[in-house]
Known about the structure:
With about 160 residues, this protein is mostly helical. The chain has helices spanning about 1-55, 60-85, 90-120, 125-140, 145-160.
Amino acid sequence: MSNDFFCYAVRMEKYVWVKMFCGLLMVGTLSACIGNTYQQQADVIKGHVERFYGHLQSHQVGHAVFENEQIEMIGLSSEERLLRRVGQLKHDEKIQEWKIIKTAKETAAENWLALARYFSENQQYDKARSTYQRVIETYQGLANQLYVDRAKMGLRDVETILGP
């Protein structure tokens, strides 16, 4: 009888180790998924940026604007997801969402500034003015102050060219 109990205990011990291994494997996989989600979204943003500049080089401004709006949408959807699930997310997940939001906003602001410079270089000063104004109005707050300041400088340059 004790021999049967010993065999049963050994099998149970193996079962516990298998369960622990599977649990650790799942945790590792989920951790990788969190990182992968951020990397996937960063790669999507990178793709939009490449298409944005490709369209600008081809003078397809409408397509470039569309690509940049897609980047802004990634940031907005990440913000919405973060706000909706704020109590449910782990610390690492919150950090990843904030990274996506920050990356999307900064990238979009940089692209709008590049578009405004494109308009200025092509002597489309009214379009440059409105694009700079868009950055100033859209990207408020300390985190975006650099972009707002650059837009204000660009706007002053355009207004200097246009005169009174």
